[in-house]
Amino acid sequence: MQKLDPYINVDPGTMNPFEHGEVFVTDDGGETDLDLGHYERFIDENLLRDSNATTGSIYSAVLASERRGDYLGKTVQVIPHITDEIKHRITRLAGDDTDVVITEVGGTVGDIEILPFLEAIRQFRLDVGRDNVCYIHVTLIPFIGPSGEQKTKPTQHSVTELRSRGIQPDVIVCRSESPISDGLKRKISSLCDVPVEGVVNAADANNLYEVPLILHEEGLDTVVCDILRLDHTTIDLSEWEALVERVDAARKPVRIGLIGKYVSLVDAYLSVVESLKHGGFDHGAAVEIAWIQAEDVESLLAHGQLKDLDGIVIPGGFGERGVEGKIAAARFARENDIPCLGLCLGMQVMVIDYARHVAGLEGADSSEFDAATPHPVIDLMESQREVTEKGGTMRLGAYVAHLEPGSQVAEAYGATVISERHRHRYEFNPTYRARLTEAGLRCSGTSPDDRLVEFIELPGHPFWVGTQAHPEFKSRPTRPGPLFSAFIAAALTRAEGRQPHLFDVDEPNNGRHQAAVSAATAGQ
Fold it and tell me: Angle at which helices 182-192 and 153-164 pack, to 10 degrees?
């Protein structure tokens, strides 16, 4: 799968999370659009950096070719050079083991920056053959409250604009708040010149993971296979149906506080939130996220407003703003036996808390936030000291870690050699490893050469675990990230302790419970 984005940034890596949400990292170190996270969660395949291309990266490649003299002195133009590069980005995903390449063109039909992409995909059908391309157009069917109508005009205008660029949709997927009628489908079919079976409704679902089942019921897969002349095979959606059943059955309440710097934009932590939900599905838990601005933590603690949390997650981030609040949250979780999971920067603030308040290293900090700290327990990686450019220069991609047998993280993963994705420049300073270990902190996972600390935990605590990695990028709804599953299990234990389950008189097992109580009473 692939996403083509029309913005001019080479990749999203240098963009502020408020601009574009989270940056999703692939195994091979690509900093990509957050939509690739959705792709991986739904198709359960690891994508690569080539699965995301932007206007910036395409123009950079064309200009580099021009500088090398690849065009033999020709005038470099949008057509054919830019459009050829776009088509090249699509075809280079097609390996020997690839049947279909699914490419999403981001943006909106009519935007000026999307025009080269539309021209490229128009040409693509001519290049590879009519039966080898299927155009799917996603449109909105808005509901007009006062008149009580669903309107097709936006769809009609969008298709007209697309046709003006030489593209006739084969399928129209209609997003709507509620299901659209067969009559409305026939109207869209007639006005947009698409067979009625090619008008597919994607109405709002109870949960995100129900959407593939809805699209299957609408016949999208059958229509696309017919257009591409693909052999029909029996579709087995039993695993996905079982997932949706687990999602619907997840009822045990668990409240997780997410301590973030960008909480006003939920997409900034999209993979973290989905991974927490995956952990909830695994334990029948309905995860409620309490969005907590890191800068407000110290004030909230002063007013005792975080005591009702069942767990705390401290996700990644960059820059000094809000760091002291994250450190305070880590300390609060540690001192009050609240399950806590630190991710990337989250692990770093946990180390800073432990160094300051347990190991006695007054003024301990990260050199990222205080270059003059007397105890830089978090420091710039040696490999980063000569790096000057920002884009694509961090420690990126999947790295192997060795876990200590018997540690919480080894128990969670069920293995002692694992791989997770990374995105960082700073690390646990190995100079302080011995001192913090003597103070009781356990460095439970390291790089294969034992130089980099990848995981920490606190023996005796229900769950106070940090990782330098971003395990949220590999979590799947059908295979939750091990740390998230273990974290939610610990949070559920705390939730049950704070609010013990009361048996309902109508529960099927209530008779057995009453018998047990009677037997216990008789034995007194």
Answer: 30
DSSP bridge partners of 53:
4
Verify whether residue 470 is a known catalytic residue: yes
Given 344, 375, 402, 422, which residue is catalytic? 344
H helix and E strand count, the chain: 18, 22
DSSP alpha helix (H) spans, 193-319: 211-217, 220-227, 238-249, 270-283, 297-302
The residues, ordered by sequence, that sit 6+ positions from 41 with a Cβ below 8 Å of its Cβ are 274, 475, 476, 477
- In our burial notation (b when 16+ CB lie closer than 10 A, e otherwise), range 384-396 reads eeeeeeeeeebbb
| 8 A C-beta contact, residue 1 and residue 39 | yes
Q: How far apart are CA 311 and CA 326, in angstroms?
A: 14
Say how far apart CA 445 and CA 457 lie, in whole Å. Answer: 9
Respond yes or no on whether the N-terminal peptide bond of residue 146 is cis (omega within 30° of 0): no
User: Is 134 known to be catalytic?
Assistant: no
DSSP calls for 301-350: HHTTTTTT-SEEEE----SSTTHHHHHHHHHHHHHTT--EEEETHHHHHH
389 labelled catalytic? no
Count CB neighbours of 84 within 10 A.
15
Going residue by residue through the chain (524 aa), what tens digit of pLDDT does each one get?
999 999 999 998 888 888 889 999 999 999 999 999 999 999 999 999 999 999 999 999 999 999 999 998 899 999 999 999 999 999 999 988 899 999 999 999 989 999 999 999 999 999 999 999 999 999 999 999 888 899 999 999 999 999 999 999 999 999 999 999 999 999 999 999 999 999 999 999 999 999 999 999 999 999 999 999 998 778 889 999 999 999 999 999 999 999 999 999 999 999 999 999 999 999 999 999 999 999 999 999 998 889 999 999 999 999 899 999 999 999 999 999 999 999 999 999 999 999 999 999 999 999 999 999 999 999 998 878 777 676 778 899 999 999 999 999 999 999 999 999 999 999 999 999 999 999 999 999 999 999 999 999 999 999 999 999 999 999 999 999 999 999 999 999 999 987 765 544 454 444 434 333 333 333 33
- Which of 31, 427, 454, 472 does the annotation list as catalytic? 472
Question: CA dihedral defined by 490, 493, 495, 499, rounded to 10 degrees?
Answer: -170
pTM: 0.91
Spatial distance between the Cα atoms of 421 and 430, rounded to a whole number of angstroms: 21
> Assign residue 377 a region: left if phi > 0, alpha if psi is -120 to 50, beta otherwise?
alpha
